[in-house]
Amino acid sequence: MSASPETPVETPDRSAFPEPSVVVVRNPADDTVVGTVPDMTATEVADLAARLRAAQPAWEALGPEGRKVHLLRWLDWIVDNKEHILGLVHREAGKSWGDAQIELLVAVEVINYYAKNGARFLADETPSPHNVSAITKRLRLIRRPYQLVGIITPWNYPLAMPMMDVPGALMAGAAVMTKPSEVTPLAWAEVVRGWNEEIGAPPVLGLASGLGPTGAAVVDEVDMVQFTGSTATGRRIGVRAAERLIPASLELGGKDAMVVLADADLDRAVDGAVWGGLFNAGQSCIAVERVYVEAPVYDEFVERLVNAVDRIRVGHDAQGSFDADYGAMANEQQMGIVERQVADALERGARALTGGRRLAKGLFFPPTVLVDVDHSMLAMTEETFGPLLPVMKVADEDEAVRLANDSPYGLAGSIWTSDAERGLRVGRRIETGGMNVNNAMTNVFQFPLPMGGWKSSGLGHRFGGAYGIRKYCRQQAFVSERVHLKKEIHWYPNTRRKAQVTDKALRLLGMHDWRRRLGRAAK
Ligand code: NAD
User: What whole-number distance in Å separates Cα of residue 406 and Cα of residue 410?
Assistant: First the structure.
């Protein structure tokens, strides 16, 4: 569940769950059972790790072009089976059918991007020697994958979350152990089954299903971990990774600010707030979580926003029907966070202009516009992960920037203005890993750009560009001799003569005596 950066995370105690060890997955919209997955023990995770490691060398040996073939076959299989896979996404997360569709889009785009560019991003580099003293050296930077990468993901996008990470790691040549959220593991389990049973791919993609302890066991087995989830769990994983001396890339929570300046196109800003704040019931790390509006347009923006959210249809529509805009909250805990934040805001003097109470049936929360809010309220400071749009009036852009930066989080955000230069200027002042002008959440889908959070929103970058594949590799500095010399000048024995030559060369090349002499002559 989402939590503030300071909240210590409780890893669920395995003994609290009865044998046999399965995780039962329920549709939060109607509480029906959608399926089960094994709750894997640490021993089972270790066995899986051993099998994945055994398969990895042959996978790496295929080279990027060979690996690309399997990734593209997988993509075809996923698209051919999209009704089935998205059906699982739809039911296990209680989403609207429309919101489930974007998950396939991410899968298609990320696989294609890394399949197309993988060979180029992984190619050896041959930089020139840095100065004449190294002129006899041939330099090569070689990228070799970590043998086993662990990818741990949350529940909000059961297919899209692992799909942001797995294609890059597989293209790098690593074997990959995935750990989907226990709340929504079914669609991903099916996609991993597709890799292993349907397309003739080598067994380098594994599924470690289970609760928190299974995730901890993954961190204990892998050579590198990519984690997406709450800041509290991420911090715990970072500590364990440090103990094991393995790299950890962490994508964590957010509290993204939307800044509406007085010269913005208000129609677009309102529609952007609705989509950015409510898509997937607001359960996106990069959702619009708070809105700051410049005073001259505040009243008009709020009025239009309330009208727009009142047209949003909340529900769990039938598969294929597109009768709802957004669906259920993922579980009762997430609903509890939203209710607690609304109650806190109302107690402290905020007003809900629409929404504000959960619907009578199912885990649904209506779109809720809160006004008269300030930074004493949880809804403006803690991650919500729900369909709240708290809107605050600001005097000017300086106040908007100050408030936007008044957060432990720094994932993304947006500026709305008709002046592109102003958007750039204001956006640069906001401390976040992503920024959008006149759009919301779109930075994540620009694959040449890095996606990552600053401050308590993360460590490293998750994906995007060459880094999204190189992060799964170790760099080997490879040096060979261009010319055959009997000896290097600095090899033993030490002599006065050699020291004098070295000193002269150093003064000439490294200390730039010639430049100092020229400087004196010019005076
Ligand atoms: P979570 O941190 O509770 O769980 C995420 C995953 O970690 C799950 O698979 C869980 O089983 C596993 N896990 C739990 N304890 C573990 C441990 N000790 N060691 C290893 N793995 C462990 O997060 P959640 O509630 O599933 O997801 C919601 C959070 O995810 C929100 O805070 C949200 O902001 C964040 N999120 C961030 C991004 C991003 O890209 N920045 C994207 C989506 C969600």
Answer: 10
